[in-house]
Amino acid sequence: MAVRYENECCDCAVPLYPCRGASCPNRHVPHVFCDNCGDEIVDEDLFDDGNGILMCAVCLERKLLDVGVDIYDEDFNYEDYADVVSIEDYIEQERI
Ligand SMILES: [Zn+2]
Ligand SMILES: [Zn+2]
């Protein structure tokens, strides 16, 4: 599981709009982390290699290089080696 929700509500209250407490969106800000290297993945795609591990592009590239895949070939396509999951879709699906 690579989604972690963090409380980022730091005095979002202003005189007219006090913090909404439990429903404050800043209290549940999703952060997605690569299962492999632990780096936070921000506005990038996630890659599911079919082993239940969601990884960042750097990890996938490293893994493919290790097994001799030429990721610099012009015909190279991530989707041939892993399911590409958009970060928005992933967060949405984890929420259910
Ligand atoms: Zn708040
Ligand atoms: Zn990674």
List keywords for this structure.
single chain, three-stranded antiparallel beta sheet, binds zinc ion, 22% strand, 96 residues, alpha+beta
Coarse structural class: alpha+beta
How many strands? 6
How much is the radius of gyration in Å? 18 Å
Strand order of the largest sheet: 1-2-3
Indicate the overall shape.
elongated
Assign a percent range to the helix content.
10-25%
Strand-and-helix sequence, N→C?
EEEEEHEH
Biggest sheet character? 3 strands, antiparallel
The domain tally reads: 1
Q: Ligands bound here?
A: zinc ion
Tally of alpha and pi helices: 2
Characterization of the model:
The structure is a single chain. The radius of gyration is 18 Å and the shape is elongated. The chain has two helices and six strands; from the N terminus they run βββββαβα. The protein has one domain. The chain is of the alpha+beta class. The protein has helices at 57-66, 87-95, and strands at 3-6, 29-33, 40-41, 45-48, 54-55, 83-86. β2 (29-33) and β3 (40-41) form a beta hairpin. The mean pLDDT is 88. The strands form two sheets. It has a three-stranded antiparallel β-sheet, with helices on one face. The protein has a three-stranded antiparallel β-sheet with strand order 5-4-6.
